[in-house]
Amino acid sequence: MSANAPPPSNNPELAGTVDFGYRQVPSGEKKPMVRAVFDSVARRYDIMNDLMSLGIHRVWKRRLLTLLAPRPHLELLDLAGGTGDISFGWLAAGGGPAILSDINAQMLSVGRERAAERAMIGDLRFLVADAEALPLPSASVDRVTIAFGLRNCTDKLAVLREARRVLRPGGRFFCLEFSTVQVAALAPVYDAWSFKVLPRLGSAVAGDAESYQYLAESIRTFPRQEVLAEMMREAGLERVSYENMSAGIVAIHSGWRL
Q1: Across all residues in the chain, what is the average pLDDT?
Q2: Is 143 a member of any domain?
Q3: Which amino acids does the record list as binding S-adenosyl-L-methionine (predicted)?
Q4: Of 50-54, 65-69, 170-174, 252-256, which range is least confident?
């Protein structure tokens, strides 16, 4: 974790709270707070992704799609799919039916507009749903992805358990998420970008510095690579592994339902 992050609190008064960036908030309040963040940034989300990552998010997503190995007979559930990058990439690569799901209707609306522009509406099902309690049958999809969304969920273990539940036997789960930098010399540069440049970009481009401050903080409070891998095992996923990219700025975790 970055030196900018406060140490974890052991205050018993924080029982029943969860992280919202560096703040602790009552667990029931996080979802509407996250929803407000993404309502604010939805229309500028794709532009900001390019600015935030200097365009490298496209490389990370291409790697995820390669690992997904799309096939016409396989069905994808794209959790926290937002504006649709993973679903569109899956379909373009020859994957089968896809469910583009997000808890935030504003983000999903942008995804629907982008799908219409790409003539992909007929290949996609849109689902406003909480990834912690999916309104889908057990063993109903072959691949589940969540890209840059798990850190915004209140109960991450519940999301992982739901991902396993809806996977068919032999199905595979993938999580692409910001993680813990593995090269010490890179950490100060990354911190400066995240906490000094990023909120200013958010203010200039999206008119919202506060939401991008939260996004930077949420990265630093997300579980480290091995901690997330252990959470996946606890959720019942097997053959869990992860791959660092860009010196650990992001990682792709995967696990199977066997």
Answers
A1: 89
A2: yes
A3: 83, 102, 130-131
A4: 50-54
